[in-house]
Design goal:
mainly alpha; globular
Length: 143
């Protein structure tokens, strides 16, 4: 499988060739990125939104547009006019090993991991306690 960012990486290498950054500068940039990410209102996602995303991935792997379409069909409008937030959440879920992904024909497909399936199973069996489980997941993802 080819790397879809190969040309971008080559371009960056050429443009920044000869530059070096101190560890202090690298750490300052990383801190600035973390600070900016903390302002993304990660706790603003509703438990129902997360549940709808996990439900959308139960049967098979889907790419972002398919997930988005399925969410809109369920009248989940959290990402309306800002689909980028969906990809941020998918990426965070992937970092927490709730989702895995793979590139197929220039599309990134997401699927539930074993850990993700456990979350789905737990909220399906908990009934009214599902909100607590999903809110805990949202807090975990936002760390």
């Amino acid at each position: 499988m080819t790397d879809p960012f190969h040309n971008l990486k080559d371009s960056i290498k050429k443009d920044f060739e000869g530059f070096s950054f101190s560890d202090e500068r690298k750490n300052a940039v990383k801190a600035a990125i973390r600070k900016k990410q903390s302002h993304l209102e990660l706790h603003s996602w509703k438990a129902e939104t997360l549940q709808n995303i996990l439900d959308a991935l139960q049967g098979e792997a889907k790419h972002g547009y398919e997930i988005s379409t399925q969410l809109f069909q369920k009248n989940e409008l959290s990402f309306k006019n800002n689909e980028g937030k969906l990809y941020i959440l998918l990426h965070l879920l992937e970092n927490k090993k709730i989702l895995s992904s793979k590139w197929i024909e220039d599309k990134k497909y997401y699927s539930l991991t074993a850990k993700g399936k456990k979350y789905v199973a737990s909220y399906e069996h908990q009934g009214s306690k599902q909100q607590v489980s999903l809110k805990n997941l949202i807090e975990e993802v936002s760390l």
